[in-house]
Amino acid sequence: MLCASPQLWPEPTGPYTFATATVPVRADGFSLRVTASPSRNVTKHLNDAFALMRNDIRALVKRDGKKESSIGTPYDIVIRVSVKGSADVRLRLNTDESYTLTLKRKSNLIADITAHSFCGARHGFETLSQLIWFDPYINSLLTLEAAMVEDAPRFHYRGFLLDTSRNYFPVPDLMRTIDAMAACKMNTFHWHISDSQSFPLRLKSVPQLAQYGAYGTGAVYTPDDIRAIVHRASLRGVRVLIEVDAPAHVGRAWAWGPSVGQGDLAFCIEAEPWQIFCGEPPCGQLNPLNPFVYELLERIYSEIIELTGVDDVFHIGGDEVSVSCWSRHLKGFNPMDLWLDFTRRAMLALNAANGGKLPELTLLWSSHLTRSPYLKKLNSNQVGIQIWGASKWRDSRAVLDAGFRSVISHVDAWYLDCGFGSWRDSSDGHCGPYKSWQQIYEHRPWKKNSGTWRIEGGAVCQWTEQLGPGGLDTRVWPRAAALAERLWSDRTQGAEKDVYIRLDTQRSRLLTRGVHAAPLWARWCSHNPHACL
Amino acid sequence: MKSWGESLGRGASAHFSRVGWLRRALLLLAAAACTAAALLYWRQQLDDRAHRPLHNLGIEPQWTWICRNERCERLPASESTILQSLPTCNMLCASTQLWPQPTGPVSLATAAVPVRADGISLKVTASPSREVTEHLNDAFALMRDDIKSLEKTADGKRRSDIGSPRDILVRVAVNGSADVRLRLDTDESYKLSIRPNGYTLVADITAHSFCGARHGFETLSQLIWLDPYASSLLALEAASVEDAPRFHYRGLLLDTARNYFPVPELLRTIDAMGACKLNTFHWHASDSQSFPLRLNSAPQLAQHGAYGPGAIYTPDDIRAIVRRARLRGIRVLIEIDAPAHVGRAWAWGPAAGLGHLAHCIEVEPWSAFCGEPPCGQLNPRNPHVYDLLERVYTEIIQLTGVDDIFHIGGDEVSERCWTQHFNDTDPMDLWLDFTNRAMLALNRANGGKLPELTLLWSSRLTRSPYLERLDRKHIGIQVWGASRWPESRAVLDAGFRSIISHVDAWYLDCGFGSWRDSSDGHCGPYRSWQQIYEHRPWTEEAPAAATGAEPWRVEGGAACQWTEQLAAGGLDARVWPRAAALAERLWADRAEGAAADVYLRLDTQRARLLARGVRPAPLWPRWCSHNPHACL
Question: Which of A149, A401, B445, B524 has the fewest CB atoms within 10 Å distance of its CB?
Answer without folding.
Answer: A401
